[in-house]
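Re-running Poly(A) polymerase to confirm reproducibility after the cluster update. Everything else is unchanged from the original entry.
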Amino acid sequence: MKKIEKLAAPTVITAHANADFDALAAMVAASKIYENAVLIFPGSQESNLRNFFIESTTYLFNFKAFKDIDPKSVELLVVVDTRQRSRIPHVRPVLDNPDLRIHLYDHHPDSDEDLPFEKSVVKTWGSTTTIITHEIIKQNLTLNREEATLLGLGIYEDTGSFGFNTTTPEDFEAAGWLKSQGMDLEVVTDLLSHELSAQQVTYLGELLKNASTYDIHGVDVIITEISTDAFVPDFALLVHKIMDMEKIKVVFALGRMADRIHVVSRSKNPDVNVGQICASLGGGGHEAAASATVKDKTLAEVRDDLFALFYSQINPQIVVDSLMSRPPVVIEDDKSIDDAVQLMSRYGLKDVPVVAAGTMHCVGIMGHKTADKALSHHLGTVGITEYMTRTFEVVAIKTDLYRVMEIILSNRQRMLPVVEGDNLAGVITRTDLMNMLIDEPARIPDSLLPERKRERNIGAQVKNRLPEDMLDLLQTAGELGTDIGWNVYVVGGFVRDILLGRPNQDLDLVVEGDGIQFAKKLAGILGGRVKAHSKFKTAVVILQNGQRVDVATARLEYYEYPAALPTVELSSIKMDLYRRDFTVNALALRINPNRFGQLVDFFGAERDIRNRTIRVLHSLSFVEDPTRILRAIRFERRFDFQIGGQTMRLIKNALNLELFSKLSGSRVMHELQLIMNEEDPLSCLLRMQELGIMEAIHPLLKINRDRVQVLTELVKVHNWYKLLYLEPEIVPWKLYILGLTMGVKRDQIGKITKRLYFTKKEEREFLQLRDQIGDGLMKLMGWREGKSKLSKLYSILHYIPVEGVLFMMARSRKEYIRRNISQYLSRLQSLEVEINGKDLQAMGIEPGPIYTVILDKLLIAKIDGRIETREEQLNMVEALHKEFIEKSDNQL
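Result of re-run:
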């Protein structure tokens, strides 16, 4: 069978699944801006729209089926009338393309699953078509009659023919311009007016009969439902008819159709945002019109979810006002950790708001757990401002309850300050909220449960981005875990780099079971060997190809004193992730077959990756392990991220406490070596200098202007040398430590080598290297290009390790010296003669010191160009041997 070649589509335009006229029109409007784009229709449940699309739109515009295009060819994805990843399942494979650019046009509210974007045009106008029409007007483009009519359909439908409260002046302006472009209002009217079929009249009667009115905080809400095994076409039309017939302000219609529940909602009451409610059910829309499709739930369960959302969103201000505790117990920001612990213990508080001294202006939140931990590190006299949480949400008294639930339940902020103007009026705690919800007959909306937001499946990304051998390894480990009955996760940087689209071969597995036992079984399957560390309950599986797989037992680390090594206790995967350094590394990916690719994110890592932010998990992170400061800088520079404001403040606090002085030299040196292995070590070192870290490690390591200059050159020559693929390979830390110690006197070097925990051998070799560099630079000053022999250059540099030679190249400001060192590294150091000891023996020369003398003289002659071929070299050997014999005879 002949393989059908798929169409290359560099630019694709699409909209949300179950498209309406606004989505369809916005796609066509976008195609005017993005020429030669391919349009992918997402499908629609409305028969009127489907028929219109089939009969006319496919012939007029560049629509294609997704199966007909090559997903990997897509470079730019334009999404209209939504920003939510879950609402564009028909183009999901495209989202995994590396370097994919995304442009968004939408009029719906923000959501937690909004796509990352290169460009985003979002306005709260009546329709998305209006937004793009204004873009078309700005670019002085024109439309034909068919295009203007279609765009008019989108605007008229989503504004209820300008009858919805969400209609804006911009919608009228866009419609007026479309009329000038030839919009046919008769066609618009015909397509938006519907005659009901006999079956639809029956369904309408059922909906009217089943309708019930509920008073939700003073707002009348109509809920109705039908149940059928067949799909009900134009279900939204029936809801619209109910609104017109009964003069209803707010209606929610639930339709069980086969195995799904379809929810269609309309609102003419500004206090009821049906778009927000339907978004919580997994759907979307705007304030006046919205819909959702729910799988795996009954009508009763969806109805319960709706009531929970009603009570949390509809006119809930009176609930917030009565829910908060007042007056709040507070602590002023000039108090100490000791003061905070005493206050919270006296009142039984888990958290206390911190206010500016002499005011009620809230500046932070102090947690009892953090304060207790600070006490265990003997930091009781330290001011609370050092460890209080500065990044937190506050709400006004009239904020709706849904927002409160979002912050406390979904964003995991345990205590929420309530403000009136600039002053703290009260607080709402998680306990307050839960007690209210227990008394309330409605359940918490599923969309606000932390578990739901922490987990999504990225199995497709994993399979597309990992090499086949790595994917096989993960699947094998996951299957083993299922066979034993344990959950198995990949954790840390490996998961982070999957999301970033970066290669990473450092595989860390965490097992909710016995990690050492698991490692032994995995090694048996894969044919590897195991190195176990019983104290830490970890193991390393070393495969035959050299691949290493670290396996850990799910655990929690705590630190007995600042800068101590960790003590290990068993715990769950959540506790294991909590022990990690930064949120972006506190990710887990489940690899058991039944849930392969399930992403576990307890601490907002995905958000921080999107925002390109490095953030610690808790306030005492740097107190417990100051080396995390160096890691923060390394990750910030590697990924082009930014250290978050709270995290930066904690870094400065750790430096003020002089915690680096408590760190062992070996731990500091290990982190420095990792930094110096980075692609851009200089930016890391300069960031460390900016924050005062170099001096905190040792005052002699302060980076001055001269060191900046030589370090800059060292990066250049290092990168140049790597591109030559020469032997021997560079040991980066030796190279950059030379730069950092430039100008330090010989008798002072020992202070640095001792601080960085050099071994005696490393210290001796480092001092010798510095001496060789000084001697070599002096000799190079006397070497003259074109006058001095190349062999002399070779003899000067040959015995200096390559790190020293590169340092000399970077250090020298004389271009001819740099050029000559370059010649040595790229050509002379790898020169060899074709003659070896076996040749000398075959020529009858007795083995002994003479071999070294002869071979050295041959190499010098070759470097100077006096001999080239093997024959010339053999002739020279004979002459040298004869000369040696004659000298020996004369001495006798």
